[in-house]
Structure formats: structure tokens, C-alpha cells
Design goal:
The chain is an all-alpha fold and 141 residues long. It has two domains: 80 residues; 47 residues. Helix content is 89%, strand content 0%. The chain starts with a helix and ends in a 6-residue tail after the last helix.
């Protein structure tokens, strides 16, 4: 009877061992499937992020290239503006009468009457009225 009991215990231990091994294997298999699914999802996300990064990098390169062009255009525009300012200053120095007209225009813009401008700047009435029309088109005519 001792042998039968020992044999029964061994069989029960073997069955329990096989059941535990099967349960552990099934749980491991389920976990492996879950991890494989997560890995696939993360790989897809990574691929999408790489594409987005590539698009962003090319957009950045384009923006940088445009920025360089704008900077060059700004520099050339600033140089042209400085040149025009220099030319305007030179013209103002060459034509003393232009200062009279500038003063007359400033007086008209500040609200002086036509008679005040005529007497102060020693200009003919027609020229003062022309200046008024140029600088105040809505009120001058």
C-alpha cells in the first residue's frame, strides 16, 4: 500500500506540475501576444514620428533658406533707403528753394492760413494753394 500511495502522490504531483506548467505557458503566451501588439503599435508610432520629423526638418530648412533671402533683401533695401536718404539730403542742400517749400508745407500741415504762409515764406498764392492741395487733398480744393 505504501507503493500505491507513493505512486498516487507522484501521479498527483506530476498532474499538478503539468497543469501549473500549462497555466504558466498560457499566461506567458498571452503576455507575449500583448507585448508583440504593443511593440507593433510603438513601431508604427515611431515610423509616424520619423515621417513627421522629416517633414518638420525640411520645413525648417525651407524657412531658414527664406529667412536668408529675406535678410539679404532687407540689407539691400536698407542700403537703397540709405542711398535715397543721402540723395534727398543732397538735393535739399542743392536747392535752397526746396527748404522754403518744405517750411510752407509744414506750416500748412500745422494749420496755418494761406495768407500766413504767403507772407512768411514769400511765395505766390498759386504755389501755396498748390501745396495745400498736395498736402491736404480733401480740404485744399
Amino acid at each position: 500500500m505504501d507503493v500505491n500511495l507513493s505512486l498516487l502522490i507522484a501521479v498527483v504531483a506530476l498532474v499538478v506540475s503539468v497543469l501549473l506548467t500549462t497555466v504558466i505557458w498560457l499566461l506567458g503566451r498571452r503576455k507575449l501576444t500583448q507585448l508583440s501588439s504593443e511593440l507593433l503599435h510603438h513601431q508604427q508610432q515611431l515610423s509616424s514620428m520619423k515621417k513627421q520629423l522629416s517633414i518638420t526638418a525640411s520645413t525648417l530648412e525651407e524657412v531658414q533658406a527664406r529667412s536668408i533671402v529675406v535678410a539679404k533683401n532687407t540689407e539691400s533695401t536698407a542700403a537703397a533707403l540709405a542711398d535715397l536718404h543721402k540723395q534727398l539730403t543732397t538735393l535739399g542742400e542743392q536747392d535752397p528753394e526746396s527748404k522754403v517749400y518744405q517750411r510752407a508745407a509744414a506750416m500748412l500741415q500745422s494749420g496755418a492760413s494761406i495768407d500766413e504762409v504767403i507772407h512768411s515764406c514769400d511765395l505766390p498764392e498759386a504755389e501755396v494753394q498748390l501745396l495745400l492741395k498736395i498736402h491736404h487733398p480733401a480740404t485744399g480744393g
